[in-house]
């Protein structure tokens, strides 16, 4: 039997995961050689290039949203996982506590300090600073200017003599009643001066993070060492608050939804997903369109399926059940990357791509070694 | 397909996920010994320990590989690109035990190529793919910035 190449419509249909009232359909990818007899689904970089696109929705330093269209979930998921667990950042790793008479215990304080996100000169952070090698048991750590950043926190709470006698607010009654992230001082060592001075100084992303509360006579005095690390070791090293993707929802209205029904239909979805338009004279004149004799009435149209949460509320209503088809596009991933501030959020994604490439490259070399 | 092998591979000895504890003396080559780490000069990182191993019971066209310190991140992506190779009859990955940092990939190919070649091609395809993603992403970001600047 000679093979008929698939129509455009058929190709589009293959990308859709069906979402029904209780069930889902066509969940797995089918773009593998041999799945459709007579069709060529071999990996081809040129074909991938043609079918793949990126679309930005938002690109701010702390938040970026973009779509990868035309790639498989396994690839999209690899990028997401790498962004969370494998892109390195600098965070406080060791805390040397000289004195801590506050009510917060040393280990709790150290943990809180570790979680504070820091930022600084990008060139210094990403290129100048290198990995810190953990010393072997019993050996001295090799801390140098290119693998360790030193910070200190020296603060003492004292009475404020100028405070009003009726004052009850501890922040006015005492000096340094609250210890904030901005109280942490960066001490450049060696060549760090060159990369981390002026606006490039190493500093907390948010200066107002509350670290501890003190009362007169209490003090905290400690030194901290920051090292580079990855999220798979500890979440404090993750460059993202969250990096996630959704799969693009699709909504297909199969039969006209008009008037009061259209308004109700619109309410079944989040704001902005469904719009209301007047039925035009042309549509009303069209035979079999279902709009005959409804000129000027409002009809429901899909405006922005991306905003849908696929709650399936619409399928709970008897009158809409057979008039709409919900689904998701299997190869369209809407990412949301929220940076903690050490990287630009779009740079985190780019770094994840080059990380995957580097990983594949080093393993290719390993494979060659293995065969030898 | 005509190229299908007719006899199965004998999977005799050794459970597939347990490697003898003798680590990597199979490979250490070239600069194996002088591990002077203040050799700060970059690019080709010091020769790493061998992270890819061929599991026992493998033949030319049907092999299992063990990757140390890899997980679902690479496993699933690699499985996908290898499955897109028409010379590959079967490809799957597994993490035999969650508390062992190991990932296994099983590849069976049709005659005419080998499992090792298929794995190598898979790793190359991932690299090419990454280049395309980077290229398109950078362009999309630039276009977006331009559009944003234009609309104020």
UniProtKB/TrEMBL annotation, chain A:
GO terms for cellular component: nuclear DNA-directed RNA polymerase complex; RNA polymerase I complex; RNA polymerase III complex. SUPFAM superfamilies: Insert subdomain of RNA polymerase alpha subunit, RBP11-like subunits of RNA polymerase. Keywords: DNA-directed RNA polymerase, Nucleus, Transcription. GO terms for biological process: DNA-templated transcription. Pfam families: RNA_pol_A_bac, RNA_pol_L. Residues 63-366 form the DNA-directed RNA polymerase RpoA/D/Rpb3-type domain. It is found in: Nucleus. SMART domains: RPOLD. The keyword Nucleus applies. GO terms for molecular function: DNA binding; DNA-directed RNA polymerase activity; protein dimerization activity. Belongs to the archaeal Rpo3/eukaryotic RPB3 RNA polymerase subunit family. This is DNA-directed RNA polymerases I and III subunit RPAC1. It comes from Triangularia verruculosa.
UniProtKB/TrEMBL annotation, chain B:
One of its GO terms (molecular function) is protein dimerization activity. GO terms for cellular component: nuclear DNA-directed RNA polymerase complex; RNA polymerase I complex; RNA polymerase III complex. GO terms for biological process: transcription by RNA polymerase III; transcription elongation by RNA polymerase I. Residues 27-47 have a biased composition (Acidic residues). Keywords: DNA-directed RNA polymerase, Nucleus, Transcription. Residues 63-135 form the DNA-directed RNA polymerase RBP11-like dimerisation domain. It holds the Pfam family RNA_pol_L_2. PROSITE patterns: RNA_POL_L_13KD (PS01154). Residues 1-50 are annotated as: Disordered. It is found in: Nucleus. CDD domains: RNAP_I_III_AC19. HAMAP family: RNApol_arch_Rpo11. Belongs to the archaeal Rpo11/eukaryotic RPB11/RPC19 RNA polymerase subunit family. This is DNA-directed RNA polymerases I and III subunit RPAC2. It comes from Triangularia verruculosa.
């Amino acid at each position: 039997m000679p093979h008929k190449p698939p129509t455009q419509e058929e190709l589009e249909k293959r990308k859709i995961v069906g979402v029904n009232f209780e069930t889902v359909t066509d969940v797995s990818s089918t773009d593998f050689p041999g799945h459709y007899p007579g069709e060529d689904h071999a990996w081809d970089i040129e074909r991938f290039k043609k079918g793949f696109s990126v679309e930005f929705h938002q690109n701010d330093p702390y938040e970026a949203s973009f779509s990868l269209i035309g790639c498989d979930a396994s690839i999209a998921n690899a990028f997401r996982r790498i962004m969370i667990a494998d892109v390195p950042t600098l965070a406080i790793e060791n805390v040397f506590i000289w004195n801590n008479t506050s009510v917060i215990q040393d280990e709790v304080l150290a943990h809180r300090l570790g979680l504070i996100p820091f930022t600084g000169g990008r060139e210094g952070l990403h290129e100048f600073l290198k990995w810190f090698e953990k010393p072997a048991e019993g050996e001295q750590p090799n801390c140098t200017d290119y693998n360790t950043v030193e910070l200190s926190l020296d603060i003492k709470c004292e009475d404020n003599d100028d405070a009003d006698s009726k004052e009850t607010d501890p922040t006015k009654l005492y000096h340094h009643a609250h210890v904030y992230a901005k109280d942490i001082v960066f001490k450049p060592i060696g060549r760090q001066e060159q990369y981390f001075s002026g606006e490039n100084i190493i500093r907390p992303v948010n200066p107002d993070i509350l670290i501890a509360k003190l009362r007169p006579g209490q003090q905290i005095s400690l030194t901290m060492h920051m090292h580079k690390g990855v999220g798979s070791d500890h979440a404090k090293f993750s460059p993202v608050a969250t990096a996630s993707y959704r799969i693009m929802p699709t909504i297909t209205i199969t039969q006209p939804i008009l008037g009061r029904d259209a308004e109700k239909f619109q309410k079944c979805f989040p704001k902005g997903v469904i719009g209301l338009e007047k039925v035009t004279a042309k549509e009303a004149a069209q035979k079999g369109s279902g709009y005959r004799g409804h000129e000027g009435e409002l009809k429901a149209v899909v405006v922005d399926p991306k905003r849908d949460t696929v709650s399936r509320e619409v399928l709970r209503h008897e009158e809409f059940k057979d008039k709409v088809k919900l689904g998701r596009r299997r190869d369209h991933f809407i990412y949301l990357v929220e940076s903690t501030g050490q990287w630009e959020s779009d740079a985190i994604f780019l770094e994840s791509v080059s990380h995957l490439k580097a990983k594949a490259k080093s393993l290719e070399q390993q494979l060659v070694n293995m065969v030898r | 397909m005509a190229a299908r092998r007719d006899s199965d591979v004998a999977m005799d000895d050794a459970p597939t996920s347990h490697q003898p504890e003798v680590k990597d003396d199979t490979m250490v080559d070239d600069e194996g010994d002088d591990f002077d780490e203040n050799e700060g000069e970059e690019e080709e990182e010091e020769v790493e320990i061998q992270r890819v191993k061929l599991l026992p019971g493998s033949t030319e066209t049907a092999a299992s590989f063990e990757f140390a310190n890899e997980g679902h991140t690479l496993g699933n992506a690699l499985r996908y690109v290898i499955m897109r190779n028409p010379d590959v009859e079967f490809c799957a990955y597994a993490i035999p035990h969650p508390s062992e940092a190991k990932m296994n990939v099983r590849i069976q190919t049709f005659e005419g190529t080998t499992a090792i070649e298929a794995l190598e091609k898979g790793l190359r395809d991932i690299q090419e793919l990454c280049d395309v993603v980077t290229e398109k992403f950078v362009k999309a970001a630039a276009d977006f910035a331009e559009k944003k600047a234009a609309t104020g």
